[in-house]
Amino acid sequence: AQDHQTGSPFLWRIQHSDSQNTARSSYIFGTIHIDDQKVMSLTENVLQRLVVADTLLLELELNANGSVDVLRKMLFTDGRNLTQVVGEETFVEVSEALQNTGNDLPDEILTVLKPWAAMLLLIKPDNSSGTFLDKRLADLARNSGIRVQGLETVNEQLSVFDDIAIEDQVILLQSAMSSLADKDLAFQQLLDAYLEGDLEKIVKIAESQQPKNQRLATLINDKLIIQRNQRMFDRMQEQLRAGNIFIAVGALHLPGEQGLLNKLRQAGYSVM
User: Fold this and answer.
1) Which of 70, 209, 249, 252 has the CA that lies 20 to 30 A from 203?
2) CB 82 within 8 A of CB 118
3) Cα torsion angle, 177, 179, 182, 183, sign
4) Residue burial 239-255, b: 16+ Cβ < 10 Å; e: rest
């Protein structure tokens, strides 16, 4: 069954059952990290709720110095290199695939990419505009004088992959290589499901893109969704009690028993 939402495909109002003051209601909005004009043109309903909030809480605070940390984390610094851990043949295939997907990296970076970093570069959606929904929300908020904060750090987000054993990183990279041909179709399906406001379909598509290796699929789901849901939930508590915040996180963090919508309800909030 679909959750009832406040008008817009992925917008819910959060209100504590103790509070009668609807002016202090908060909102949670599910985003999608795809650069698409239809996604970017936010509904009036979302814009109205955003511009009157005290704080915008994003998954990640978007600031310039993050990119240096990202690069540092993505590269081997211990003398190892990508050829050593994946073998010469796979390395050549990965290099070609990265070039074909527009990730034309200088050799000195390509050779010391960690396998998880190569995987993320391969599977990320093409982005021609250099912007995406979360960034658009952050820009709108700042222009309205609204505080923008992140629920996680860049370091935490990347550690999700960086902490995976190197052998498993290699399997994940091989898995990404084998599903490259389906990548565009999967993103199109994801986009359609998002624009239809169909959360169940988004979950199904995401599941179809998981590694075939069941142990790894479970590990990734646990690290990427379940553990992060808990962390984000814990960190939004203080602002939620104050009220009038606008939370924007990837739509996959919302549904299911371990999802944010259910966690909020269990904590005594009405989510509608």
Assistant:
1) 70
2) yes
3) negative
4) bbeebbbbbbbbbbbbb
